[in-house]
Amino acid sequence: MTAAAQRLFIGGEWVEPAGGHYEVVNPADESVVGLAPEASPEQVREAARAAREAFAAWSRTRPQERAAILDRAADIVQREFEPWAALARAETGAPTGIARGMQVAVGAARFRRYAAGALEPVERGLPPQVTEAGPMGAASVLGALEVRQPVGVVSCITSYNNPWANPAGKVAPALAMGNTVVVKPAPQDPLSVFKMAEALAEAGAPPGVVNVVGGRSVAVGEAAVDSPDVDMVSFTGSTGVGRRIAEVCGRSMKRQLMELGGKGAAIVFDDADLDAAVRGIGTTFSFYSGQICTAPTRVLVHRSVHDALLAKLAGYASYLKVGDPAEHGTVVGPVISAAHRDRVEAYVELGRKEGARVVVGGERPVVGPAGKGFYVAPTLLADCTNDMRVVREEIFGPVVVVVPFDTEEEAVALADDSDYGLLSYVWSGDVARAFRVARQLRAGGVGVNTIGRNMEAPFGGFKRSGVGRDVGSYALHAYSEIQSIVWTT
């Protein structure tokens, strides 16, 4: 698949990038998918100015109009589903089922969800307050109204692991609330995000309401954060980059929404359904090839069932087909790039040096006769302790580490002994214990006997895993400011 050279989308126009183009590489076979644009910092600032100019009119549109545009955008995504799913598979390396069901389909669903979200109430009456006469004036009854207002211009900086669900999860609620956006997609797989811009433009989003820029240069990302026309930054990515963005935002008091790193703890008690636990933990091997911050990568298992769980996990990992994402039956595709493959492999080697035992995986798989692509075998590390770097640091690949525990208290202590706190998990046949433990964990979310997520529940992290909450109606709150209107009666 080779696409035409992609242009930037600024102020409702398709604009040639000042920095030319670069190749987007298919992680599965290293072929060229298309040519992505390299914006200049000034073009990013131009996009922010266009969003600023569009904000006043867009923020005053009727909610029904914003809802209709988002609904039409979802219709267009569904109309173009097949070619856009093929593009997503090509530039991310995701297997066909993931590209279709968890990328493009989720993107469309999020536009549909926030079309309805645009119609949710933004005003709430507060109980009246009786005040006595005093220095502030005569006795009166004061009414009050809480009103949620759009923040303004939102810079949406997105991750490479899902170029549909992640941007749509930012852009759709931001637009629903009356904000305008500048989207800066990940440089590894930006082409799908420009298709999203096409859908919104065709759906009737006015010029400047949606702008998409891009590029590999750090200066492009910096301009998307420090532009004086940007009021809020919504970022998904590493904790290190998030910290730098927060420092810049702090200088001008920009609002922030940060979904950062994770090292999810999966606590498996002695009475757990081990097969169910393995199916959940095994998604680290298969789902996005472990390139997902919510993965249960750090398994804490009761010593009495340690060997049994390890054997089941090893069997599960060995069963998974690693291969070309386009081929039927492929479960584990490549990671996003050669550099990231090398990083994951370096962590596995580090684990060996730290004393971990490689139970399965640990060698580079060869896929196809040419042996091209950025593949990492599902890898299981045992004999781990909580002070090892492979246990403490986010690997972001199909690697699971296993640490034994003896008591409930020790399990909680091990789980919370982490810089991260995004999602953790508890497997136990005793639901009361599972919920008791869940409430003690310092994590933004806890799955009890499941890795499933309720997509109306708030999503975000404790500690270095992020700032703020989104998903469902919480996203509408995240992209709004609260205003109080008070009057006397």
Automatic annotation (TrEMBL):
<dbReference type="InterPro" id="IPR016163">
    <property type="entry name" value="Ald_DH_C"/>
</dbReference>
<dbReference type="InterPro" id="IPR016161">
    <property type="entry name" value="Ald_DH/histidinol_DH"/>
</dbReference>
<keyword id="KW-0560">Oxidoreductase</keyword>
<dbReference type="Pfam" id="PF00171">
    <property type="entry name" value="Aldedh"/>
</dbReference>
<feature type="domain" description="Aldehyde dehydrogenase">
    <location>
        <begin position="14"/>
        <end position="485"/>
    </location>
</feature>
<dbReference type="InterPro" id="IPR016162">
    <property type="entry name" value="Ald_DH_N"/>
</dbReference>
<protein>
    <submittedName>
        <fullName>Aldehyde dehydrogenase family protein</fullName>
    </submittedName>
</protein>
<dbReference type="InterPro" id="IPR015590">
    <property type="entry name" value="Aldehyde_DH_dom"/>
</dbReference>
